[in-house]
Design goal:
By secondary structure, the chain is an alpha/beta fold. It folds into 5 domains: 2-60, no CATH class; 64-127 and 446-506, no CATH class; 130-218, Ribonuclease H-like superfamily/Ribonuclease H (Nucleotidyltransferase, domain 5, 2-Layer Sandwich), CATH 3.30.420.10; 223-345; 360-418, no CATH class. The protein contains 21 helices and 5 strands. α8 (189-206) links the parallel β4 and β5 (218-221).
Length: 506
């Protein structure tokens, strides 16, 4: 080793290290491990990947504003504030590329203006498809926002900020939809007058020569708000009964306290007896009101307990019988709404449509029964589903005996029953979108409402029977793209020209 060191010019320590490396290399080669050449190639590849990443990072610092603009506009349409958007951009962008809050605000304002221009075209394209509307108001720091939603598609077709909720303001919203024939709303005076003013305007237009007389807009009272008022009074009545039960229990405890101290408990015993009598009375009234409320809710639905479709006479008799148990001043509003003819007008409308679709009474009742049994079978499980399957098959035989083309009648009836609407809960879903913005901001402009409308109507729904589709597509409007950001970049005039070429209004 000494001679080798002298010949090579290296120290003995270095030669020992080289010997160990040679032994390790031979061992690795014989053991089938990674070779030196492979490790070198892997090292070169990693160096190349590292260089490519640094190159991508340097290019990211010079990216245009397109993606940050899209991020800011989408986040604001979802309800985030400008400060929150800047903080999120600071996470994904280099420090030198993070825009200021003022810059993000300008981006959002430009998107709002573009959304307002586009909505003028998009609303025009939706006119022929909007036949029904759910109407309601939502208050934003005491200023009303007039909301309108098409219930079948969940398309948000109107979000007008103020100036008030009078009949004239609602008429301005309603008259934008010339094909509208039915409205669902609560019993507000402004809404009722708005529908009347819109109908008067239609009659005035129908008096012009060479124009067919337009059909009047019908109105149904919203079952959703009726049930909510029913639950509110019922909850208050149960709370009153519970408080009285607690008071009676405290009176009993006071009687026991007097007896333990050897004091005369006759006075407090009388108070306890009266407290328990009152608690029993309130509890019995709450139980009766609860049962009556359950009957009323059943009568406000589509289907009777025996599986048949409610008629106005049968549902009204059921409601009248249950309303007799709703006594006292707190139930005045509920009784007044239930006595309104428009509360059950959804049944009249549905039966008229079913009669037009299937004029034969026996066949109509048979296919309606078949549809209800099929729906129940789809929701059932286990042996109950099998039993319902046999009943469905028998009902199909009945329909076949009544008409050879019963399947066509069934399809028409199924379409009507699936699209039947009795409540404006659809507009409450969209109201929740505005409430998200309401929780973070003190003010919402008309431009922001328009931006939210475009985003919502192009947003793909992720759950429910509309899963995988956006409201515009469900409504029937054919657009060049349903991507909301790409749509926002289009020129409104060119978009209107494309929609006219596609015969969207046909």
């Amino acid at each position: 080793m000494s001679r080798r060191a002298q010949q090579s010019g290296y120290s003995r320590t270095t030669l020992y290290h080289h010997a160990q490396r040679v032994v390790q290399a031979v061992f690795n080669e014989q053991a089938g491990g990674i070779s030196y050449e492979t490790l070198w190639e892997e090292n070169e590849r990693l160096r190349a990947d590292n260089a490519a990443l640094w190159q991508a990072w340097s290019e990211a610092e010079e990216l245009s504003e397109a993606k940050p603009r899209e991020f800011a506009s989408t986040s604001c349409a979802m309800g985030l504030s400008l400060t929150q958007i800047v903080r999120l951009l600071a996470i994904v962008l280099p420090s030198g590329a993070v825009p200021s809050r003022a810059t993000v605000g300008r981006w959002v304002q430009q998107a709002e203006k573009q959304a307002s221009r586009l909505l003028a075209v998009l609303d025009w394209a939706c006119q022929v498809w909007v036949l029904r509307l759910c109407l309601d108001e939502i208050f934003f720091h005491r200023e009303p926002i007039l909301m309108a939603v098409e219930p079948a598609s969940m398309a948000w077709v109107a979000g007008q900020r103020g100036p008030d909720r009078t009949g004239d303001s609602w008429a301005e919203v309603i008259t934008r939809w010339p094909c509208l024939d039915h409205v669902l709303a609560d019993g507000g005076k402004g809404l009722e007058r708005g529908v009347k003013v819109a109908n008067d305007a239609r009659q005035a237009q129908g008096q012009a020569p060479a124009l067919p007389p337009p059909s009047p807009i019908t109105m149904s009272l919203d079952v959703f708000h009726t049930q909510r008022e029913l639950e509110r009074v019922l909850h208050r009545q149960w709370s009153q009964a519970e408080r009285q039960l607690e008071a009676a229990s405290e009176a009993d405890a006071k009687v026991d306290y007097y007896k333990q101290r050897g004091r005369d408990a006759r006075g407090v015993a009388g108070e306890s007896w009266r407290a328990w009598r009152k608690a029993e009375r309130l509890f019995d009234e709450a139980v009766q009101a609860d049962a009556a409320a359950a009957q009323i809710k059943a009568a406000l639905s589509w289907w009777a307990p025996d599986g048949t479709l409610w008629t106005r006479d049968s549902a009204q008799a059921h409601v009248r019988q249950a309303s007799e148990h709703l006594r006292g001043q707190p139930w005045n509003k509920v009784r007044r709404v239930l006595s309104d003819e428009r509360t059950l007008s959804h049944l009249d409308r549905l039966h008229e449509q079913l009669t037009d679709a299937v004029p034969q009474p026996l066949l109509r009742e048979a296919v309606i029964r078949l549809w209800s049994l099929s729906e129940a079978m789809q929701q059932a499980e286990g042996d109950h589903r099998i039993r319902l399957l046999h009943v469905v098959v028998l009902q199909q035989v009945v329909c076949q005996g009544l008409c050879a083309q019963w399947d066509a009648a069934y399809e028409r009836v199924a379409t009507l029953l699936q699209g039947a609407v009795r409540a404006s809960s659809a507009v409450e879903c969209v109201n929740s979108v505005v409430r998200m913005h309401q929780g973070r901001h003190r003010y919402i402009s008309q431009g922001m409402l328009d931006l939210k409308r475009v985003y919502w109507n192009c947003r793909t729904l992720r759950e429910g029977k509309r899963k995988g589709h956006c409201p515009y597509a469900l409504l029937g409007v054919t657009l060049p793209t349903y991507d909301w950001w790409q749509l926002l970049q289009m020129n409104p005039d060119k978009l209107k020209q494309q929609l006219s070429t596609q015969n969207v209004r046909a």
